[in-house]
Write a structure and sequence with these properties.
mainly alpha, two-stranded antiparallel sheet, 7% strand, 62% helix, 242 residues
Length: 242
């Protein structure tokens, strides 16, 4: 019976399957659906008139028609991108001593401590490296903030290409975010500072101890630094939705 059924099916010819795919897809292999051009136009007119008074809840709710970047998303990304720029310009660290308060903006962190790099290296060779890393993170934050705003508000290309470029810019912000996570893990152990407690007592430096660790970091860190990290988190996570 199976052999007879297979034979009957094959005898109908291979072109019959195209009748069930649709018209205007496989060109000449598919017969015209409408008997005349007038019938086609009349049917299109009926569909247009029907669409004016009816709506399809199924199609309107599909993800194909959904807006990936809503107004709320655009406002949030704008705020976080501005936060990256402002956060990098404002002070990241503030250290008080008997000589006054030293504030260190993110993007100028290296230049703020340039005169002290030699002294820091004598205390601990890792301290200048931390300064370089923090400076690089601040610069990356400002750059990504500017690029995100450009992707949001400068129109070029079609909708799909703009969303693709925006997704890539947001996705790359996982890079500085990953470095921040690695820094926090490293600071759990910290860097030993010889005579750190004595220096704290002599020069009245609150927060300084025998190590530069997560506690010291928290004592010296300013709100702008946390603004930068928070903005990176929001932007990077949003790349998963686009």
């Amino acid at each position: 019976m199976a052999e007879e059924k297979t034979k009957d099916t094959s005898s109908e010819g291979s072109d019959i399957r195209y009748k069930y795919i649709g018209f205007d897809v496989y060109g000449s292999k598919v017969e015209e659906f409408f008997r005349s051009e007038e019938e086609k136009k009349d049917y299109e007119k009926q569909v247009a008139e029907y669409a004016k008074s009816h709506s399809s809840s199924l199609r309107s709710g599909t993800t194909v028609q959904g807006e990936l970047l809503t107004v709320v998303d655009r406002v949030i990304l704008t705020m976080t991108s501005i936060g990256l720029i402002v956060g990098g310009i404002l002070p990241w660290f503030s250290v008080s001593s008997i000589y006054g308060k030293l504030t260190m903006p993110g993007i100028t962190l290296f230049s703020s401590l340039a005169g002290l790099m030699g002294l820091l290296s004598q205390f601990a060779g890792m301290l200048p490296i931390l300064v370089y890393v923090f400076s690089a993170l601040a610069i990356l934050g400002v750059v990504f903030g500017i690029l995100t705003l450009v992707m949001l508000y400068i129109p070029f290309g079609n909708r799909e290409s703009r969303l693709s470029r925006l997704r890539h810019v947001l996705g790359w912000q996982y890079l500085p975010l990953s470095i921040w996570v690695a820094m926090f893990v490293f600071l759990v152990v910290g860097v030993k500072i010889p005579f750190g407690e004595d220096l704290s007592n002599i020069y009245a430096i609150p927060g300084l101890g025998s190590k530069f660790d997560i506690v010291t970091f928290w004592s010296f860190a300013q709100p702008a630094l946390w603004l930068t990290i928070g903005s990176l988190v929001v932007n990077a996570v949003k790349s998963n939705d686009l």
